[in-house]
Amino acid sequence: MKLVRAEIIAIGDELLYGQIMDTNSHWISQELDLVGVKVVRKTTVGDNRADILAAFAAAEERADLILITGGLGPTQDDLTKPLLAEYFGCEVVEFPQAVEAVTSFFKRRGREMTPLNILQGHLPSCCTYVPNEVGTAPGMWFERGGKYWMSMPGVPHEMKKLMKDFVLPTLPKVVALPVIYHKVIKTVGIGESWLADLIKDWENNLPEHIRLAYLPSLGHVKLRLTAFGDNLKTLEQEVEVQIRLVIPIIDKYVYGFNSETLETAIGKLLKNAGKTLALAESCSGGYVSHLVTTVPGSSAYFQGSVVPYHNQFKESVLGVKSKTLETFGAVSEETVQEMAAGVRKLFNADFGLSSSGVAGPDGGSEEKPVGTVWIACAGEDFMETRKLQLTQDRMLNIQLTGVAVLNLLRMCFSRKDK
Amino acid sequence: MKLVRAEIIAIGDELLYGQIMDTNSHWISQELDLVGVKVVRKTTVGDNRADILAAFAAAEERADLILITGGLGPTQDDLTKPLLAEYFGCEVVEFPQAVEAVTSFFKRRGREMTPLNILQGHLPSCCTYVPNEVGTAPGMWFERGGKYWMSMPGVPHEMKKLMKDFVLPTLPKVVALPVIYHKVIKTVGIGESWLADLIKDWENNLPEHIRLAYLPSLGHVKLRLTAFGDNLKTLEQEVEVQIRLVIPIIDKYVYGFNSETLETAIGKLLKNAGKTLALAESCSGGYVSHLVTTVPGSSAYFQGSVVPYHNQFKESVLGVKSKTLETFGAVSEETVQEMAAGVRKLFNADFGLSSSGVAGPDGGSEEKPVGTVWIACAGEDFMETRKLQLTQDRMLNIQLTGVAVLNLLRMCFSRKDK
């Protein structure tokens, strides 16, 4: 089955000049991907007649579905509407229903209308008017030669509402959507090329209709399996068969599936086992606590943390021995062990995690250069430590330490299980 | 003067399918805008031979400078490198220097290489090899017919380093850039339209060749002044004159200029006065500590922090009275005052900052709905508090609390000065 091909066009000088980040195109991609529409291109053009018309023409060549955001404001530099009329060869005329909608929008908000706002109810005569309940610029739907176009405002929540209320429900009525099944395997603690090497035999034996993509990000690699076919249930089963084959090979790196994050995965582990967590963060400076507490409901297992940024507080708050700090230094296996044990006790937690390292750019030495980090995980009857040799970049060192600390907990946890 | 026209091409199925958000193109736009290069188009294409080649050809038609990100991984679906070779009509060959760089990159990290990684040192013979010091995929620079191309990895920090170390310094040597002077005024604690209203007379009197842009972001608004002319020194003086006029009007909202952040501004204030800081974070969960410690050298003024996520630790670690928690609750002015005073004492700091609130999505009540947050700043002889009424979104509430806490310190600080 041939997939419906889509192009997303974002219009506005502010996008090209970096004044506003285009989050719309990303969101639209995700929604289209879920329903099996293949986005083949994203284009961003400025408020320029020739560029916009050229983008329309190129998109019509490439795609069956063209989704346009932006350029619908009431001011003169907003060109999308007149250019759509020009492109489709019709006039901009009054749509009484649209004028009425804009008028009542202003009335509801208790705001006064300008003549420019009334013109927002004037639309190309060849479009289908799509009401925008949360803003003043209507959606416009066009059909020509078996291709479908939708123009939407650039304001994200207005665009999303038009997508959810109109575009996504309309699509299955006008185009043939495929049967598609996605599953993403989330891994941590292994690089993309190492992972590829480990699973190359499995990858080479994947059936034709199941595709694999590697999606690396800071310390993580996602493996996305996408299956195409006729029957969703069958595809799901086929993907699950492949997952059962690959998991044993990469078991120790897998922390979850689909939208799961390392933070939510760890939260689930802790919650299911009724265990609690406390953190002592030196070089990571609160970043791990932040990650853990972004998860709704984390108060069920997160007791608290200490960031003893100065060594004296590693002693006074966490009970690290001054002898340990003197003999081995703050960035040492011995210190992170005492920090992890100390914070575990302070917060009466099942697991105590700690970090201490040279985040940089200063503070490095020949023995302990910038990027040297020790981390520890303490439990009732065990202590695990790791030494990391990270980068020259402070922010990256903080982030990579965060991933490593959470991953260490995951590994300690599976090792202890109950 | 004719501006250099640029196109940014992002390559990768993961971008089209919405698995990864393309933040690179946005960042590149901002950097090009600063040096007076006009971005005329942003294009995103998938890992598809014909689409990538078509994008190259169209970009060469439209632009003088083509910046490409992504598609440079070691795996088979990464097509950028062979297609650049094909497009420019040359072979992919071994660059001994690049192979050496990849090899030593792995050696430094203490990680083993795969044969795929060695191939990352093989590049189109017609490119200039640009070393990537922070990753394994090199940059590639091409010149043809007076047009310039740069291919960079999609990993944001690698791309940024190549832009900063190579592309931005190289541009003025190969193309004519306009004389432009930018200065950004950083404000916090006031909305865009309120700010616009305050400074409208000043704005209306700006000279023709100095433009103003409002760049709002989470809790902040940046005011960017851009002056166009012939002489950089003159432009700088003219902008400074305007800044001296506007600052008195918006004084209390301004925390810095240009790349300064609220974190670095506060660091400067503390460092210059020889004062120290400690944090007690409940609802912000470590986020403020993270912000403070992203600043290099923050150990000079940051003593440490406690995240007492459970109420019992507000008592046992910070010394909040159980009576206070019982009577007023954890989310109350009284509690944050005791938290701020307690953490100030625990870490022997000049300033103690605290937060406690309902981040959501659960935990709200009629009296204290989701988004209710109390913050406090304690000094030797003063205590300042604020109540915030934020949003329904947990992540947003954490971030906005972070901005508000740091801003409260800024205000307390200026009020105490010495």
Give me the secondary-structure topology.
2 copies of one chain form a homodimer.
Chain A: E1 5-11, H1 13-16, H2 24-34, E2 38-45, H3 49-62, E3 65-69, H4 80-88, E4 92-94, H5 96-109, H6 115-118, E5 122-124, E6 128-130, E7 139-144, E8 147-152, H7 156-174, E9 179-188, H8 192-198, H9 200-204, E10 210-217, E11 220-229, H10 232-250, E12 254-257, H11 262-273, E13 277-281, H12 287-293, E14 302-307, H13 311-316, H14 322-328, H15 333-346, E15 351-357, E16 372-378, E17 383-389, H16 394-416
Parallel strand pairs in A: 1-2, 1-3, 3-8, 13-14, 13-15
Antiparallel strand pairs in A: 4-5, 6-7, 7-8, 9-11, 9-12, 10-11, 15-16, 16-17
> Can you give the helix content of chain A as a percent range?
40-55%
Number of domains of chain A: 3
Can you summarize the main beta sheet of chain A?
A: 6 strands, mixed
Question: Could you please say which CATH topology of the largest domain in chain A applies here?
Answer: Molybdenum Cofactor Biosythetic Enzyme, Chain A
- Quaternary assembly: homodimer
In total, how many beta strands of chain A? 17
The termini of chain A sit apart by 48 Å
Which regions of chain A are unreliable across 5 or more consecutive residues at pLDDT < 50? none
Q: Structural class, from secondary structure content of chain A?
A: alpha/beta
CATH architecture of the largest domain in chain A: 3-Layer(aba) Sandwich
Rg for CA atoms of chain A:
28 Å
Strand fraction of chain A: 25-35%
The geometry of chain A reads as elongated
**Count of individual helical segments of chain A:** 16
Read across the widest sheet of chain A, the strand sequence of neighbours is 2-1-3-8-7-6
Please name the fourth-level CATH homologous superfamily of the largest domain in chain A.
MoaB/Mog-like domain
CATH hierarchy class name of the largest domain in chain A: Alpha Beta
Domain MoaB/Mog (chains A, B): 7-173
Protein name (chains A, B): CinA-like protein
Pfam families (chains A, B): CinA (PF02464), CinA_KH (PF18146), MoCF_biosynth (PF00994)
Family (chains A, B): Belongs to the CinA family.
